[in-house]
Amino acid sequence: MKRSMPRFDIIGQLGSLRRYARSLTRDSTDAEDLVHDALVRAYERRATFRSSGNLRAWLLSIVHNTFIDKMRSRKSDAARLEQAGYLADGSTPAPQEHSVRLAQVREAFFSLPQEQRSALHLVAIEGLSYQQAADASGVPLGTLMSRIGRARDALRKMEDAAPSKTKNHLRIVGGPS
In this structure, what are the phi and psi dihedrals at residue 6, rounded to the nearest 5 degrees? Predict the structure, then answer.
């Protein structure tokens, strides 16, 4: 005898999930990403939901746990990036002109939000494929691609705002040449 899965009314819960995610993240884009990730997790674990349970409470707890997992991941990533910064600071300085430009590029890169910086680093610096980077970050492929797109856009805007003397060497990977 095949056990039937409980019927989920996810659509009816989206408003609550989005409001809660927004209160956790304080950012509508991050909230949408959080809800998406939580719904994927809920779907993957739908067999653990008890049909007598409260679907809304179950989904909200998944949003909460997903948020906590992301925060832990971000702190871990930040610690690794900070260590990488210390290692980079210990390197031999380049010739003056390139050293100044490299410092500007580094400053622009480190001014990106952590999730964008991490996604761009995995793809542009580590050479991972988008799927490998998404797996490494623990985020869906679409989320990773969105973060990379936002990071590249932010770097382009920073480059466009730079004085013309300093613009000659920066090329955004995946952007216009």
Answer: -65, 150
Mean pLDDT of all residues belonging to the chain: 81
d(CA 124, CA 144): 13
Burial of 36 (0-12, 13-18, 19+ CB in 10 A): middle
Phi-psi region of 93 (alpha: psi -120 to 50; beta: other; left: phi over 0): beta
Which has the closest alpha carbon to 152: 126, 128, 176?
Answer: 176
* The model scores a pTM over 0.85: no
User: How many angstroms separate the Cα of 92 from the Cα of each of 87, 89, 95, 105, 108?
Assistant: 11, 8, 10, 17, 21
Smallest CA-to-CA distance from 73 within 140, 133, 25, 137 is with 137
Mean pLDDT calculated for residue range 93-104: 71
Residue 172 reports pLDDT greater than 60: no
Contact 63, 30 (CB under 8 A): no
- For tokens 């990977």, name the residue: 173
Nearest to 148 by CA among 106, 116, 111: 116
